[in-house]
Each structure stands twice: as structure tokens, then as C-alpha cells.
């Protein structure tokens, strides 16, 4: 479930319709500007895999969710109450919408770790690693490992975002097939 300040809620049906989400990172300059982050993780799903709460009669997203056209074919979704970036979609890829992974509720990403362990105990030697390895119910690794590739790696910043993560690394978008060899 994705939620921001309790205003925008959406359930992502991960295993419905026989479609597994594609997880990617992007270093594209316009994506950085939109998100305010050097690297953006996203989960691409079919729009039919999203159930918006408070949806209108026509099935569209609830009123706080808005989109703006950032280029000829691309739309960026955001919360109209707080301005947080939520989604990305393109008319050229109508069967996909990218949900920005950072908008997913903590309980789905890291489980109930923050409720179980105090900050003070995490600072003790070896405790953080033990807790991290014992996360139960956390889907963060499954949802956020960019197995679908790293896009626009040509924009990586040496020493900050040039780390090889899971998946193939593409010079630009994956559709151009310009892959950076390992």
C-alpha cells in the first residue's frame, strides 16, 4: 500500500493479472528534478493492478492525486495537498505506471522493525545487522531491488550513485538496448 499523509492511498495488486512488477532505478536528470533525489527507485505495474481508495465513479484516482504533463507523452503524478512525487507514466507505454518506491508505507518496506527495536539498541555493535537480517514481513528487498535495470546510468555521479545494483545497467532507457557491460 502506498500512502502519503493519509491523503492518497492505493493498493498495489502485485500478483494479479499474471503480471509481476518491474523494479528499476533511474538517474535521468528530469527524474531527479521531479523527485528531488539523485536516484529514483520505481515499481512499474499495469494500471489495472492499482486500487485507489476514495476513487470517483469513473474509477480514477482520488482528488488529492493529480498529474501534470512534463513532456509531450509523459505525466508525473503527485499529491496536490503536500506536493510529494508519486508516479510516472507515458502514453507510449500505456500498460505501465511507475510507482515511486519511496512512497510505499514503511510497514511494507521494513516490517515492524521500528516498533520492535529502539534506536539506542540499534547503535550497539552487531544489533543493526541482526535486526536487518531478521526482518519478517518486509517486502522492501523484493519490491525495491532494481532487477528490471538501472536506467540513464550515463548520469551517475562518481562515488555517490555509480554503485552497481541488481539488474542490467543501461546508458539511457532500456528500449535503446545500450547496455553497460559488467
Instruction: State which percent range the strand residues make up.
Output: 25-35%
Q: What's the story with the biggest beta sheet?
A: 7 strands, mixed
Quaternary assembly: single chain
Elements, N to C (H/E): EEEHEEEEEEHHHHHEEE
Assign a percent range to the helix content. Answer: 10-25%
Structural class: alpha+beta
Ends apart, CA distance between termini: 34 Å
Average pLDDT, rounded to a whole number, is 80
Q: Count up the helices.
A: 6
What does this structure look like?
The protein is α+β, with helices and mostly antiparallel strands and 182 residues long. Helix content is 18%, strand content 27%. The longest helix is centred in the N-terminal third of the chain and has 7 residues. It is globular, with a radius of gyration of 17 Å. The chain starts with a strand and ends with a strand.
